[in-house]
Amino acid sequence: MATKSDLPQGTLDLLILKVIALGPVHGYAIAQRLQQVSGDVVQVPQGSLYPALHRLENRGLLAADWKDTETGREAKFYRLTRKGRSALHAETASWRRLSDAVAVILRMSEAGAE
Amino acid sequence: MTWWQRVLRRGRMEELLERELRFHLDAHTADLVARGVPPEEAGRLARLALGGPEQVKERCRDARGTRWLDDLWQDVRYALRDLRRRPAFAAVALLTLALGSGATTVMFTVINGVLFAPLPFADPGSLLNVEEETKGIVDYRWGDRWAFSYPNFLDLHREIRSLRIGAYRYNGGTVSGSSADPERVDGLQISADLLPLVGVAPIAGRTFVADDDRPGAAPVAMISRGLWQRRFGASASAIGAKIVFDATPHTIVGVAPERFNLRNADVLTPIGQNTLEFMRRREMHPGIGVWARPRPGVTLAEAQAELDVVSRGLAAQYPQSNAGRGFVAEPLRPAVGNVGSTLWLLLGAVSLVLLIACVNIASLLLARAVARDRETAMRAALGAGRGRLARQHLTESAVLGLCGGALGLVLAAAAVRPFVALWPGGLPRSNRVELDWRVFAFAIAVSLACALMFGLAPVVRASARRMEQALRAGARTVTASRRLHSALVAAEIALAFVLLVSAGVLAQTLVRLWSIDPGVDARNVLTSRMAVSPALLGDPARARAAWRDVIDRAHTVPGVRAIAMVDTVPMRSGNNQVGWWTAPPEPERMKKPLALASSVTPEYLAVTGIPLRRGRFFDEHDRIGSERVVVIDEVMAQDAFGGRDPIGRRLWTDLVPEPLLVVGVVGHVRYWGVAADDGARVRDQFYYPFAQVPDAYVRRWSELMSIAVRTDVDPLTLVEPLRHALRGAAGDQVLYETRTLEQLSAATLAQQRFLLALFAAFAGLALLLACIGVYGVLAYLVGQRVPEFGVRIALGATGRDVIELVMQQSAAMIGAGILLGAGGAWAAARVLQRLVDGVRAPEPSTLAATTALLVLPALFASFLPARRASRVDAMTALRQE
């Protein structure tokens, strides 16, 4: 049951953490925000979102409360725990290092091709 | 939510998950509708975007971290349902498992109690046993360890600072004086500090104090709880009352609790009040045991260092007795003799039975797994992971194993007491045998180990196969499992062969031993230890007269044909080993040969039926003052005098300084027991007249004497008449340890008989299980090959050909099993030879018989499926294809 996500392995968790870091939010809103922010470049399969949320909650990076939305319906709102916040920082930093490194390598190979 | 909450509130978790996804779908649908999508189309798009709700939920459950538990629960329920659906399989599997694990648990329970249970004392782990040790001098009789001499104990007690020490010495005696019958009891002389040292408080009264524990103190005694109940009705007035022990009134000061059952002592007296000569002499070692406990903060090494200092000081001060003599402390262990090896042997045997049961179940499960191939392949195709399927297999077998283990535990709880009661000669420390948490842990561990063993077979096979192949090939995948099945059958046969050969070796041993003449005519002989009136022991003349009176009175009892006194009865525990030589000068201590010496009265040959070979036996004229005479047995005649006539020759012994005149030669008696005598170190035997025992020894010899009576009637009917006739003038002479010679003779083979009975039972069970296994596997394999046989028959094979085909396959498995088992059987026979007296290497006839006993039933078990195969109807079989 491979996910159809085009996201590199592990980045979905990072993106979810980042979105939730902005404030408590429910699952549907996370899906929408990811869609909007990435400008439809990144395809986030909704089917992978909830297992990821539950996994992060299980690892203690997220906590959740049932609260009313503005439309008056009860929904499960996720928020970042302290552990989740430090995980976000660590993941962000490591992602930056990785993408910088990849960028450097890619430039090198273009230069070599000329 | 914590992990536990997630586990326990599974229903609530599911509901919340459902609501969360519901909210997502509704919100998405509403958004789409707001953008102008028609409501029905919006709902469809939203569901499409999320994916299959069940799959999402399943992955969310996976993410929850309690998934394995849900699966486990599901698998357990599945396994239980499955067992209920197949009651025949469940019954056979559970029964064999319960028997196997039950027997194993019984053995472990006994081992746990006898070998592992701590001593019933305070902080038993820190208690030490202290012995004397002669460094570099190993006595060929007793080794280099010695019981303490009393002066050495007193000096050590006074000087050592790092240890608290206490002493005890066995001292059996006669309790008399009250209205109850006189009785012989086990007694113990203890130092005043022994009970405080081990942390045992009296249940009534007090323990001894230092002032009791000295020469000349008022005689006091502590009694056991048993004696307190027996003779005093457990009354509080017993404290302060008198008890006559060995003709001396003692004031009872306290009652010892039951758990202090050292040497089963009923009467405890202060050791310091014993002023007999051997207690005063430093070179005598009258069986004094010493226990110790390090003072707080002292290590064993420090205590040992101080023991060395004290012993060196004593060696310098008393070189005559103490040169080269040290004290050595070791952790105190319960005394259980050599039962340990027998117990481990039996545990090994029952483990084999359990292994066979496991293999049997493995083959049953394997057959079922093959039958379920299509189901398994289907589930794999539907997305069940290989690990998940393996886990399900293992869960099923774990459920089976634990159910069997639980039944086994119930069986063990019921069987352990009867088993202990059957132990020949009584199992030491049997009061400590009980089901405790260790036994439970053992039973669970064994069940799970079994489950792993029989659960792995299908898993191993499953991972060796390719699923899609199974789907395509349908049910005829039998070749893949044939090899595994054959291996299982061979393993079963091999294990059963080991047990059968062991039982065969024991049976061969007993048959041989039963035919051996013990050297005495054991029928109609009664033997009994006897105490003459303790008041007479101090005076040799009166003691001799008392014994003469015993013989005269015994002759008046109707049914008594002959009576003799003897200090060491054949085949009973206890003996007297004496060094001898045939010409001066006296050889060195270590080089002297030893003989078993028995002090007897003239009618001894008439009582025991030992044949007189040459010369004469003793008569009334052999007494103090006449020439000292001796009668030797034929083994000693050969060892001492070679082929020459021993009559009239001289024999020097450690008994008395002057030489003894050999007047007769008698037959050899298998003194050490029918089985053990051949391998015994000391086989020479000689007899000397009790009437010629020097006065100085009469007291000690009188304490050791037994009577032996040849009767015209059943000897046990004479016990009461003899007891009555021999009570003596003071009414305080008692008979104890009364046995017929036949009982003693049988008891020397009790271990062999007991082991044979158990091994025969185990081997029978193993044979039955192995045959069930062979039958089951072949029936299954034949069933799978029905189409093949159909083709063969259609092509002209006769029923006979088919039977031969199947039987060949079976014979190959059985043969492989026998070959495989031969090594194990050889090892088992070696172990038995080492642990059990009288066992010899298996004879060819034994091997042939045991092989036939295994092969014939196994072949018969495979013949039934073979015959079924031969009756396959070709057309029906082919149509199945």
Strand content of chain A: 5-15%
Helix percent of chain A reads 55-70%
Q: Report how far apart the termini of chain A are.
A: 41 Å
The stretches of 5 or more residues of chain B where confidence is low (pLDDT under 50) are: 474-478
What is the helical fraction of chain B, as a range of percent? Answer: 40-55%
Count of individual beta strands of chain B: 24
Shape of chain B: globular
The parts of chain A where pLDDT drops under 50 for at least 5 residues are 1-5
CATH fourth-tier homologous superfamily of chain A: Winged helix-like DNA-binding domain superfamily/Winged helix DNA-binding domain
- Greatest contact between two chains: A-B, 21 and 23 residues
**Which CATH first-tier class of chain A would you pick?**
Mainly Alpha
- Mean pLDDT across the residues of chain B is 89
CATH topology of chain A: Arc Repressor Mutant, subunit A
Main sheet attributes: strand count, strand direction, barrel closure of chain A: 3 strands, antiparallel
Structure annotation, total helices of chain A: 4
Count of discrete domains of chain A: 1
Shape call of chain A: globular
C-alpha Rg of chain A (nearest Å): 17 Å
Q: What value does the Rg of chain B take, in angstroms? A: 38 Å
Multimeric state: heterodimer
Task: Explain this structure.
The complex is a heterodimer of chains A (114) and B (881). Chain A has a single domain, classed as Winged helix-like DNA-binding domain superfamily/Winged helix DNA-binding domain (Arc Repressor Mutant, subunit A, Orthogonal Bundle). Chain A is 59% helix and 14% strand. Chain A is built from 4 helices and 3 strands, in the order αβααββα. Chain A has helices at 11-21, 27-37, 46-58, 82-113, and strands spanning 25-26, 62-68, 74-80. In chain A, strands 1-3-2 form a 3-stranded antiparallel sheet. In chain A, a hairpin with a 5-residue loop joins β2 and β3 (74-80). The longest helix of chain A is centred in the last third of the chain and has 32 residues, at 82-113. Chain A starts with 10 loop residues before the first helix and ends with a helix. Residues 1-5 of chain A have low confidence and may be disordered. Chain B has 881 residues and is α+β, with helices and mostly antiparallel strands. Chain B folds into 4 domains: 3-65, no CATH class; 124-331, no CATH class; 339-515 and 750-880, no CATH class; 533-732, no CATH class. In chain B, 53% of the residues lie in helices and 15% in strands. Chain B contains 29 helices and 24 strands. In chain B, β9 (242-245) and β10 (248-256) form a beta hairpin. The interface between A and B is medium-sized, with 21 and 23 residues.
